[in-house]
Amino acid sequence: MAAPRSAPKLFVLDTNVLLHDPTSLFQFEEHDVFLPMVTIEELDNNKKGMTEVARNARQVSRFLDEIITHSAQQDITQGIPLLREGSVTPTGTLFLQTLQGSKLDLPLADEKADNQILGIALELQRTQPRRSVILVSKDINMRIKARALGVEAEDYFNDKVLEDSDLLYTGCRELPDDFWETHGKGVQSWQEQGRTLYKVEGPLVPSLLLNEFVFLEQGENPFHARVKERSGSMAVLEVVRDFTSQRNNTWGIVAANREQNFALNLLMNPDLDFVTLLGQAGTGKTLLTLAAGLMQTLEHKIYSEIIMTRVTVPVGEDIGFLPGTEEEKMTPWMGALEDNLDVLNKGDDEAGDWGRAATRDLIRSRIKIKSLNFMRGRTFLNKFLIIDEAQNLTPKQMKTLITRAGPGTKVVCLGNIAQIDTPYLTEGSSGITYVVDRFKGWVHSGHVTLQRGERSRLADYAAEVL
User: Fold this and answer.
1) Rounded-to-integer distance, Cα 13 and Cα 34, Å
2) CA distances (Å), 432 to each of 87, 303, 402, 439, in order?
């Protein structure tokens, strides 16, 4: 019997959706989910190993086992309520392929798993004409083939934090020209630990976030401040430290522009446990972070050492296995570290070659390079942890890394969402997009999107036109 018009939609899931997000089974609200038998076979084929994909395959299998085991439904051909552990309200119904469907006359190879899933979607569409059958896949070609055959197909969007990356929090805001007229009535200002603070009140204040930077370019006297406190329509703005001045240099480095100055204010603030910096190539993310890490590790002695890690995703063809220890294997991926250490070590011209060599050895002894593969289960105490190329991390990997932080540890994530090399990740679903959105406004975190490149005029022009 045909389903009524009010019947929920039926989503046929491709294997790559489950491997990408194991909780996708529960993300279709009141609608139903259909799993072809070939999808379960592909999960079985991918379950071995220590990769993220293998872990996700095993997690999906556990979810399916729990759903079927705890279901009171005896006849699974009628569907199984989708219940998450600890929940009493089903999110929908799960249907498994229990009978071999009729062989369809398709211009596709039957032995290919994708084509079998397409055939099942077509059969469901034929047998349930009044019900909306939708194929969900992360595979673009799979979606193209589905639409060519008349099957509705969609990408899996539930993992996206933002639909448009232009809406991502930048950490900075320009104040309107009349800000002091509308918010400065009865304004209070005072000095605290050598910093100037202002208490302001007005209609703009409720939209401000803690540790957000605000600026007002007033000719020769620009106003740059950080939102230190906020309550209702009242906020306390703290004037930022001027790291563009040589007297406030950080390991010989000074900020070259406004956003770099904001970034150094975050990096040099020990009260902020989590900092994220986004920006295109050449904006100074790694250089500023290393300079701040060295200053606070070697001079201020706030942290015991710097730990640097990154995702090992090749830009081009993979060159194969690398010999040596963990650190030696990671060295080819750390070219950015070596380049920036060269810049930081050339700052002291008076030290001479011997002095610079001694400084280089001292710096190298305090910087440890670690692989992401061995992070699970670790706890870092009093460390300055730098996660480079964080745009290639999934939200789950990002959670695994950030939760490694123990007491006294600062975590800094660097990334450029325009240079994602990991399959199935987009600007909207990247791990760094996820943490920027989730951590904004937390009292112990801060974010800045760096706008201007400072590498060279060639690099700036290439980033703009290519």
Assistant:
1) 6
2) 30, 24, 11, 10
* Per-position pLDDT tens, the chain of length 466: 444 445 788 999 999 899 888 888 888 877 889 998 889 999 999 888 877 788 888 999 998 888 888 776 666 777 888 776 656 666 778 888 875 444 445 556 567 888 889 988 988 888 888 889 999 998 889 999 999 989 999 988 776 656 556 678 999 999 998 888 888 776 789 998 889 999 999 889 999 999 999 999 877 788 999 999 999 889 999 999 999 999 999 988 999 999 999 999 999 999 999 999 999 888 889 899 999 999 999 999 999 999 888 776 544 444 455 566 555 555 655 566 767 777 777 655 555 565 566 667 777 778 887 777 667 677 889 999 999 888 888 888 888 889 989 999 999 999 998 888 777 678 888 889 999 999 999 999 999 999 887 777 787 788 778 7
DSSP 295: I
Q: What pTM was computed for the model?
A: 0.76
Question: Is 253-465 CATH 3.40.50.300?
Answer: yes
Please report which residue ranges of 295-394 form alpha helices under DSSP H: 326-330, 335-345, 352-366
Cα dihedral: 245, 247, 251, 253 (round 10): 20
**Domain formed by 10-154, architecture:** 3-Layer(aba) Sandwich (3.40)
Q: What is the DSSP string of 284-346?
A: SHHHHHHHHHHIIIIIS--SSEEEEEE----SSS------SSHHHHHGGGGHHHHHHHHHHHT
Region(s) of the chain under CATH 3.40.50.1010: 10-154
CATH architecture entry for 165-239: Beta Barrel (2.40)
